[in-house]
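dumping the sequnces here before i forget
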Amino acid sequence: MYVAVKGGESAIAAAHTLLAKERRGDPAVPELTTEQIREQLTLAVDRVMSEGSLYDRDLAALAIKQARGDLIEAIFLVRAYRSTLPRFGYAEPIETSAMTIRRRISATFKDLPGGQVLGPTFDYTHRLLDDSLNGGAAGTPSSPARKPVSEDAKVPHVADLLGHQGLIEPNPETESAAPVGDLTRDPLSFPAERDLRLQSLARGDEGLLLALGYSTQRGYGRTHPFAGEIRLGEVEVHLAPEELGFEVPLGTITVTECEMVNQFKGSAESPPQFTRGYGLAFGHCERKTMSMALVDRALRARELGEEIVAPAQDEEFVLSHADNVQATGFVEHLKLPHYVDFQAELQLVRQMRREWEDAQRKEAAE
Amino acid sequence: MSDAATYNFGYLDEQTKRMIRRALLKAMAIPGYQVPFASREMPMPYGWGTGGVQVTASVLGADDTLKVIDQGADDTTNAVSIRKFFERTAGIATTTHTSEATVIQTRHRIPEAPLREGQILVYQVPIPEPLRFLEPRETETRRLHALEDYGLMQVKLYEDIARHGHIATTYAYPVKVDGRYIMDPSPTPKFDNPKMDMCPAIQLFGAGREKRIYALPPYTKVVSLDFEDHPFERTKFDRGCALCGSEGIYLDEVVTDDRGGRMFVCSDTDFCESQRAAPSEAGHGLHEVPR
Amino acid sequence: MSAQDDRPLLVAEGLSKHYGPHLGCADVSLDIHEGEVVAVVGESGSGKSTLLGLLSTQLLPSAGSVRYRMRDGEERDLFALGEAERRFLLRTDWGFVHQDARLGLRMGVSAGGNVGERLMATGWRHYGRIRAEAEQWLERVEIARDRIDDRPDTFSGGMRQRLQIAKNMVTRPRLIFMDEPTGGLDVSVQARLLDLIRSFVGDYGLAAVIVTHDLAVARLLSHRIVVMRHGRVIETGLTDQVLDDPREPYTQLLVASILQA
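..and the predicted 3d for all of it:
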């Protein structure tokens, strides 16, 4: 009996119905709202916005719900939506030193202008399961009293404090005319400059960056990092439309920024000084920005004349594999039918087995 | 059909289509050369035909008739899914008949019925670089292409013969295009390679994840790599299709029970059906099957 | 082959290479004639590997030029060649034998594939003839024919070096560069390899530039010797003359240290 792979269409429809049912779960349990996700699963929302490259908390929350909590699937949904949006222009660079700070820590100086602000963090919590969160009876937590910080004054970056004494490499001069690459509009080619590398890392998979950053700490491309500064808060986004000729504010976004300060021995061209690694992400993505800063610094090996010996220093390797939407698509495409190629391989293996058996027989006869 | 109203014709915006068409023109001008293009995120996963879908979306017009096959069949799940995608976003006519289609998107096969002038065959390509598994670095493979430095590819074939007595590549079998570029024909079985040579239709290749487009203009010389004393050999089946009786075509092996029962049937379902419907009519007769 | 051309095969003039403020080599001029073997000696850091890199166009000089007489008799400035021409030269008329065989061989490809690669890169497309040619060259470098399908990672150190030589010789190059070809080998293995190189140079009229820190290798193989120190050539001349009667104090020291050893 030959049953062709007919009825693909109805099978797909049925599968989608089953998926919707699984997504809803037990109907006796109230349905999750996207507002709940947006307000209470904020770190998931932040990750989806960052790696989805689209700052929209509501869409990210919707994607998380639709993806049944699979964040890579949610990122994919957001990316696919994003690619249909028209491009009006490019915003001006955000000014993170003018950030309204909610968290700001430095591991390099005990006290510094602007102060250390611990903010909302898992750090120093004891990782004990909290039964009071069960059953939704936890109540509304109160806000702690806090010193107002940096309401008006700019909070200088730690790296700039070192920069005044020439102890750290200067940030590259910003030339207003220099175009910044856009890897969603132009294909990535190698060697890739730092603008494209950072862009790729910002969209890159948190898990991959974490593992690569970790590997540099374990000796695979050591960079001797210090967490110069991690800051979280709100910054204004400005756009300068050509026809207006001046900047207009578009609104406020939350970002996390990490600057690593790394040791560098110096080379023929440069005196010994500290170097930088940089990380930036939408929302509160601390692990991501720290990992990103480690990998950014490792990827500067070529520019700084360091020997390239480890995966984290290899830009083709890192950038070609950082995007989880690409990676998951290609890994999962193995689910698609490969009947035709497999048939070709089957024929070949049969032929080679025949040849092998013939050879064995001939040998036995001799 | 309501989705066709909210999305642009064929899903992609016109700017993106123009960018892809420029890449296609360049690819047609340099047959076999891989043109980088700014591949977009599509609403299907990378590796599932995003490159082919973008190419198809860029060449489709309102009066086109689209056919989509996967493994030679119109009714495999991914073919169904992509065909529905274009029905929804472009509202164009679709068909399962090779002869009626103006654009055919394919994964892993070339239809058995010969293609004609005016048709476009769009291939979905997972890994466009034929040298990739010999040299993982893009910077190096691009240099090898630029310098026409293809000794390494021949070494691979040499090693096959030294080890197995014959070239042991059965699909994605590398070809030389117009005497210049070595090209990956996408993972079609090598059985289909001869159909690419001097084909009257336009052949376009899209690799979405790897962001490359390449092309074969009509009547381009496409030669499968080999040695003079170990010439390229097309896969041969020692039987015909169990359903339509055709010979000299590519067969799927179907497992019929758990006791080793097997049958072999056409991989190209449209070809098989038309053979069974009108076996004696000219137009789909066996004599038309390309060698 | 026509009558030997009197003009030198390769002429280097005023070659210098700086690595930032560090000097690789300075103002080196050198002629190499057909069939002539030149040894470049000096301790590590003397600049001899830099010089080899410059002569073989693997490094770009900070100053100076290298001219080469191509097979058609035309003299060309090597640093003005396009990359395609340079690569073609490197895999036809030149050879390069590395101290570390892994740099010169494809360790995952059979010995036959290694030897055949240059032939295939230059258009050979007949499996049988490629294989027959590879077998001949394996035999000439004293590797048994039945090892042709084995990979070099199953070969001993001495065999790998001989395979490298076969891989280079298959296109009958006129000039071969060798970077410490006997380094890291046992003395008996070294002797066999040196014999082989010496007979090849004689039989095929091969010119060679051999970088070595081993004066015994230089004495056995080379016609002329170039002594380097701190990136400069401090003494040059016929090998026997320089080694028997070194003029420079540093060369005297080098020779004396060998004699004592």
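Chain A has two domains: 9-82, 96-119+151-171+182-327.
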